[in-house]
Each structure stands twice: as C-alpha cells, then as structure tokens.
Amino acid sequence: MSLHQPVGASRTDWQIARTEMAAPRGAVAAKHPLVAEVGLRVLRDGGNAVDAAVAMSFALSVVEPFMNGLAGSGFMTILPADGNPVVVDYFGRAPQRARADMYELAGDAQRDSLGFRGVQGDANLIGHLAVAVPGMPDGMALALERHGTRSWSELIAPAIALADEGFDVSWHFTLVSAFSLDLLRRFPATAAIFTDNGLPWRSQDLAHPTRLAQPDLARTLRRLADQGPREFYEGETARLIARDMAAHGGLVDEASLAGYRAQLLPPLAVSYRGHELLALPGGSGGSTVVETLKILEGFDLAALGHSSADALHLIAEASRLAFVDRYTFLGDEAYVAVPWDTLVSAEYAAQRRRLIDPHRALEQPPAGDLGGVPPAPRGPRGLEGCTTYFAAIDEQRNVVSATQTLTSLWGAGVVAPGTGVVLNNAMNLFDPAPGGPNSIAPGKRPLSSMAHFITRRDGRPFLACGAPGGRRIMGTVMQVVLNVLDFGLGPQAACSGPFIDCSGAELWASERLGPAVLGDLAARGHRVVAAPTSFWPMPFASPMALLVDEANELHGGADPWYIGLAAGY
Q: At 126, which helix (H) or strand (E)?
C-alpha cells in the first residue's frame, strides 16, 4: 500500500468547497466561468438548451484551447422536452490514408498510457501524424439543425468576440501552459499564439490582467459564421489545414475533411434503481460505466454507507470487472463485432457479480465469457487525457449533456498556420499494433473514454452529469451517479468526492478517505495509492452536474478544485 505518512494527529488540512447552485428557470455548467456566462445569456435571451450548448462549445474552443477546439471531437446527448433522446456523435476519425501499420512500434517492453505498444518518437501523440479528422463544427451544426432555434452565426458570435477582444489570462491558463511549455515551444505557429516570447502567458498585476487575443482564430470563426459549418471541411480553413498536414507528413487531407459527417445515434438506455440512464453508446465509456452500475445494482450500497470501505470495495471490484471487459472486447462497431447487449444486460451483470468476494479483492479479474468473442492482447491502462464538459437545461426542461476533447493536453501541439486552430491527437486513442478491435483503419473511430449521462425519473429529466479526465472519466462519473441515486447526495456534494479510480492495476483513492478506510482497502488486497486531492495535478476526473428536483427547481454542482462552475437564473 502506498500511503502518505501523516505529519501529526492534527494538522491544517485543505477545506475546499463550493456552494450548490439553485435556480427556477434555466441552468448551465461549463469548465470556464466566461463560457457559463455565454450559455446563460443564450437561455435568458430565449434560446433553448441546444442553442446554449452550441454557443458554449464554440466559446470553450477560445478560452480552453488546451482541452478542446474546432479541431476536436466529442459527443452531445440531447433530451428534448417533447421528443426522443438522441446522441450527436462528432468524434474524430482516422484519415482515409491511415493504415493499421502506419506507426513504427517501439520495443516490446515499451507501452504507452493505454497499454498499447509504444510508438517510435511518439508519432501518434505529438505532431502532424497524430491528427485525426475532427468533428466539432459538423457536430454542432447537426445538433443545431435538429434541435436548435437560433441561427448559426448568432451562436458563434460570443466566441468571435472572445477571440477578437481577448480574455483575461487566469492562474489556471498559466499553470496549464507552463506544464506544457516544451510542447508549445516545439511548433512555431503554436508558440507564437500561446507563449509570451517562449514563456507562459501570465498576469503579474491582478488589477490589470493580461488579455490573450487570438486574431487568426477570430478570422476562422468569422468564416464559419459567414459561410456555414462546411467551410471548415471544404473551404479556406480546410485548405490551410491540409496544406500544413502535407508539408509535415500528416495524413489529414482535403478529401478526408470533406468526407467527414457527424451522426445521430440512439443513446444506450438502461434502468438502474428505478431510474432510466441515458448513456453514450458504442465505442465510448458509456457501456463500461453501465456494466459497472448493473453489477452494483445487486448490492445495497446505501446500507453500507457513503465512502465506507465496504461500499468502496464493491465499487472497485465491479469497476475492475467492467474495465477488463472494456480492454478485451470494445472497438468501433462498424469494424468489429461487439456484444453490447450482453455487456450491459442484467443476466451478464449477475454472472460477473458472482465473482466478487465482499472481503477480498480479485488478484486477476477475468474477462467475461461472451460466447467465443476473441480477446485482444491489451493491458488495463488508459490515456491521461484532457477534455471539457458542459451541460444546459432550459425553462421547457430540454436537457443537453456534452463532452468534447483534443485528446491530450494541447492535442498534437500543432496549430495550423493562419487558422489559430489547435489540432487534435486522437490517433493516439487507437491501438498502433494491427489486428486488435481498436487497431487503425481508414475512417475508423477510436475507442473513447467519454461517459457523460442524462437520467430520467418517472419519465422526467432528473440528472445530467459528466467530466473531463481521460480514462478516469468513467470511474468518477459513475461515482457521481452513485452519489446521487444510491446515497442521496445533492449535485454539489456528489461532485466534491472523495473518489477512487480502478482503471489501471492500482486502486487510486483520495487521501481524504482517511487512513482507516485506505488501510481497510489495502488489507482486502487492493494495491492502494493514496492520492492527494489538489488543484494540480488532478488524480481524478473533474465532474459537474445539473439536477431537476421534484419541485422542478434546478440545482447544480461543480468540482471545487477546478475553475468551472454551474450557474442558473
């Protein structure tokens, strides 16, 4: 057991907290205060939840360029007040010229953070060869076309203003930039925007904060606003991106961009303790969280107590069983056969539940018997990714829950000159070795860790929650759902933790759980790593949640260790 040694029986520990948001009419949640203001303004002006979400998506591309952007991708779940729920899939896809063997693999002993074979020179992580075809503009256009009420140009206008006029550089922006300074300096077009002569942008005078303007990005956003979403894929922006790709060995060309289309999918809908859960379908984190919850449904977690060692042990064991199935069976269903119905069924959950000993951790959790589906040779690891989350609920109780990303912090590190657009590194989400369910193929979508939710109770919207945080999204969001549905916590308490994570071989557990709980988990055989909860680095995902109570009042919560917030009116 890896534990921090206490410095005394009494000490001046951090006590970081947020108040819960409550509002009668509309609410938003976003990972930046300026973006929450944008979304709330749209709602106040009569826009619906989808309008607010689209405006927030574009605004986030300006103020959180290290997490997401126009060259990013994601999923948006929409629950209309008077219609059927739908998921907008705008995740990145492999370029048409991609090949299963496009990367030179490193030695057998080298593995990346996903447990895949390492790649020489990190070519699937940094630089032009790591870039997949992005989906964000087309995804926003599809969401707006089907369920929005405001014009495309109107909703991009706040992002244009933020890029043109600039925004105050926060301590968080400086911190993230300093952490990635070597990467930012590596590419001249990136350094020209996101460093101050090679140093992080910073405000030395609180009364006169530094403002960061992005004129190239403002021009790109104006082209999008004036010419429509296909400009990004078939216009000047596409030509600038393709030209830079060709000059540096990248595979995203004009044909790959022109061929991209977002999709509408039905959500993965399951029951849990009398609630309907609307999860992300297919090759996302949705089925992994649902499998975990269905296993846990057979235990009375509430009777064991929130954050008790007994409850956390069961959560950890169910998570491990779901994760080993994830790493064994999941991929893009258009390319490999994936038994989704089995993985999330009550019958399969009962089979997996029987493997759990309430007093002892499984040494090697086995993959399930799914009738001869061949396992892929992969280790139980995941990407320490960087992402953003946003949500909106309007006065009519339309609900939106969305997650989008560049994959890693600052994506591939590349800005296409003349665009101001930070490019993703979503090719890193593929297995670089041929022959697996998540190996590379032209046009294929890689496996994603995204796992936001919308839940309904008695046919009415109840909870929307999600988080950024790479592979740790799944465990954290699952615990937010448990905190609300099993333990009866409000959205702010649910997002405040403490959390555990079992996506790797070790059990990461917040040191806020205390030495007695951590020691108990270790005694049951868990390889416990006691993780300090702090502003940086962040050992768990960073959740947010909006909730509609029985009186139709809106409530919101946000990770107290991050600058994002929930706001309502």
A: none
Task: Name the DSSP letter for residue 87.
Answer: E
| SS3 state at 546 | strand
Contacts 24+ apart (CB under 8 A), 235-241: 237/419, 237/421, 240/416, 240/417, 240/418, 240/419, 241/71, 241/416, 241/419, 241/421, 241/423
Residue 332 has what pLDDT? 67
Q: How many CA atoms lie within 13 A of 1 on its CB side?
A: 19
Distances (CA, A) of 67 to 80, 381, 400: 28, 21, 20
Cis peptide before 498 (omega within 30 of 0): yes
Question: Cβ(298)–Cβ(353) under 8 Å?
Answer: yes
Token pair of 458, please?
């008695």
Contacts of 508 (CB under 8 A, 6+ apart): 500, 501, 502, 529, 531, 539, 540
387 assigned to active site: yes
Instruction: Return contacts of 226-231, CB within 8 angstroms, 24+ apart.
Output: 226/153, 228/141, 228/152, 229/137, 229/138, 229/140, 229/141, 229/152, 230/138
Q: Which of 328, 387, 455, 533 is catalytic?
A: 387
Assess contact for 558 and 403: CB atoms under 8 A: no
| Residue 43 near residue 390 (C-beta atoms within 8 A) | no
- How is residue 478 written in tokens? 């699952």
- What rounded mean pLDDT belongs to the chain? 91
Q: Is the predicted pLDDT of residue 375 greater than 60, yes or no?
A: no
Q: Model pTM?
A: 0.93
Residues of the chain by 3-state class (helix, strand, coil), percent to 5: 35, 20, 45
Residues 463, 491 contacting (CB under 8 angstroms): yes
Report the alpha-carbon distance of residue 544 to residue 480 in Å, rounded: 9
Do residues 171 and 182 make contact, with C-beta atoms less than 8 angstroms apart?
Answer: no
**Residue 547 DSSP label:** E
Tokens 């001046």 identify what position? 12
> 3-state secondary structure string, 448-488?
CCCCCEEEEECCEEEEEEECCCCCHHHHHHHHHHHHHHCCC
Q: What is the mean pLDDT of residues 300-314?
A: 98
Question: 412: helix, coil or strand?
Answer: coil
Tokens encoding 177: 């930039």
| 343-347 long-range contacts, CB within 8 A, separation 24+ | 343/287, 343/290, 343/291, 343/368, 343/370, 344/268, 344/270, 344/287, 344/290, 344/291, 344/294, 345/294, 346/294, 346/297
Q: Is 40 helix (H, G, I), strand (E, B) or coil?
A: helix
Neighbour tally for 179: CB within 10 Å = 16
What is the C-alpha to C-alpha distance for residues 30 and 500, in angstroms, rounded to an integer?
A: 23
* CA atoms of 373 and 208, how far apart (whole Å): 61
| 434-449: average pLDDT | 91
* Three-state secondary-structure class, residue 428: helix
